[in-house]
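User: Show me sequence and structure for the first protein, then do the same for the second.

Assistant: Starting with the first protein.
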Amino acid sequence: MANHLNERTLSSFQQLSAAASEPNKTSDELGNLVSDLDGALKRLNLGVSTWVMIDRFEDSNSGTCHGISLGYDRINRQWGISIQSYNGNSFAEDHEAEYWHFNEAPRSIRLKAVERIPDLQDARWNDPIRLTADLKKTALARELATAIGVSRQSAKPKN
């Protein structure tokens, strides 16, 4: 009996090993392609966070919610294509969130996220417009500072 169980376990493991080869190969290829895209986005040096929703569930009775988003953001001091997963209650402000760089996220989430990369790209192209609007706010702050007699020169301590 024990010998039969060992043979069955070995056979099952060998089948699992053969079956795991193709998803691992595909996952590695996906990771390499996203890394290449990530590198291209980093060279643009926009430094502006952008997110698109992948999946969202909300129970209107209990308020329980769960969501997954794909983004371009600074995670652990490094900009890149990222994934966020959150759980919480929509009736309260508290949500637990977990963030990963794309290739560090669980495979099941990466497979969902890859379909939304074109949407993320579309959102990224709007970022220079948003960035320009933010720069105009800086100009407004400069005008306000000038109006009250504060400038970068007068704000510095004198020696």
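Switching to the second protein now.
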Amino acid sequence: MNRFFPFEKFQKRFLCCLFFGISVFSELPANAQPLGHPNIGGSNAGTFSPKNTSTTSAKASPGTIEVEILNPQGQPLADVEVDLISSFQSIAQGPREEITTKSTDSSGKVSFSDLQASLRYDYAVVAKQGDAHFGVPSFRLAKSQGQSVRIYVYPTTNSISDAFVGIRGFLYLTQREDFLNVELMFRVMSLGRKAWVPKNLLLQLPKDFQGVDVPLGEGDARFERASEGVILKGTYPPGQRDIRFSFMVPRNHRETQMIQMDLPPRVAELRGLTEALPGLELDVPGFEKVQRSQGPGGEGTVLITRKLMRPGEAELKSVLVELRGLPTRGPERWIATLVAALIALAGLFLLLRNKTHQQISDGERQTARSLILEELVALENARTERKIGPKTYQKT
């Protein structure tokens, strides 16, 4: 977990902003399809996605997980490797994880028995096909019943075109004293009948990026840290997956700062949002005119814009965000440092004189007092002219 930025603290706010941003502009048409794809037609276009399920079952014995692996047409798949991931949590003994692997029989079924029905144990079931992983969210076993799990395994492809995938994105910027925090969320929508497994898909971030946070998405969908940015990883079967990451860039303490980053392929829509601070302007070249609106939950005001791709437009491969009217660092810090240094030099002067001459004359004392007094007067004048604030004044 990233130690530079407490992502969890802002996660709810970020998701709230996401859905707020979606509501500000009109939604994509219900039959919208990723750019560059032919029309697949039919009333059920884009709705093909049988759901994996995990439920308690009286038919399964206590302490047992019965797993059924099917293809998208509902036919059983034999000889599919299935991992049971058992996680144990204990403060005294420490956490541990065990993986048990079995293969399905001719009926597409496999079972795991003699398992613990305890709050300390949770289980995840994952079916593997090549580099792809298909599974259900982790669960705990009931004491009186077993668990029944059904997982659909799809043909896989590394080609985003073959998988019929489109992506919607959301970018949220927040300001801190010494850095800008950038949070991105992408909704990967697969409308075909194959699972997309991206391969070596690097998104480059600004050269001075730091503090990357990459929480795990649904299943194994996720971003991973890399030296130049983040890598899109995981399995994206038919349906949709939400993935996100955040990073920071240092503030340049100028009125204008630009941030440029790569985007995943097939981004059909991207929205950008930031807090509407006094004098702040948001500019994203090629995007719609920035709007001012009430923030999520009615708190404050935000600036929001978007880019909705149209047929025939070149793919949106990167985005450049420019913030203007940022607060700059004034002279207060330098003034305080200079005054403090002068006072310290006066003290050092007295110390050295005292070591050289054990007896200090009245004239020397008067000179030292005058020097310190001059610096204190300079400090008072800086405070009166509001060149330094009350905190700096008190510290100095």
